[in-house]
Amino acid sequence: MSNQHLNSSRYEKRDKKRKTNIVLNTLIGIVLVLIFVIGSQLILGANQSEKTAKYNEQPDIQVASEENKAEEENPDTDKEENQKENSDKNTEDGSEEAKQEDTDEDMDQKEETESEIEDSFDEATITEGDPESGIAETIESSGWAPIGTSQSEPHSANYTKGSQDWNEMTKALSYATGIPESDMIIWYLGNNGGPNDAAGTISPKDQSVKYKVYITWVENEGWMPTKIEKLQ
Q: Who contacts 214 (Cβ-Cβ below 8 Å, separation ≥6)?
């Protein structure tokens, strides 16, 4: 075999080997690029998922922070609400106590009125009335006296409510029956036929009894009861 033929064979082998290496290197490069691209996408996808999860959790954290902030800014809210509840309860209890006191006071006043009425009739003469007359009893007493007056003579009866004469006549009605003026209802008060005679129909506020009281004017001494009729 000639030298020329040997050289040609060696050249072809080296060329073939060189081409094979180029192909292998190219394939290796492509594989590395694919690995890099796929790895990058996986890493980026994981980061994005983590960011999304954190973002979704953020509103809850924010709400909790706002609630904590509100509690810090208003530390006395619960205390004020408790104080308000206690105040409302105390007010309600106070109202109940006040109502009970008013009831007890009304009962005491009623008992006092009834006692005064009984005392005012202790020395009186009581006559049973005719059932058809509408009068249950007629009450008269020699112990009644004029109530006094600040008016001067000559006297002329004045039946205007609130006048001095009206006030003094009201005192005479209270004196005769024992009904306090503060507990008295005046159904009628007016002239009874003469210039110095008057009559008034009254009752306590509970209207448990009704009286017609006759009074007369005593010169310089004021109005004096003369007779009481307990009405049916």
A: 192, 197, 198, 199, 225, 226, 227, 228, 229
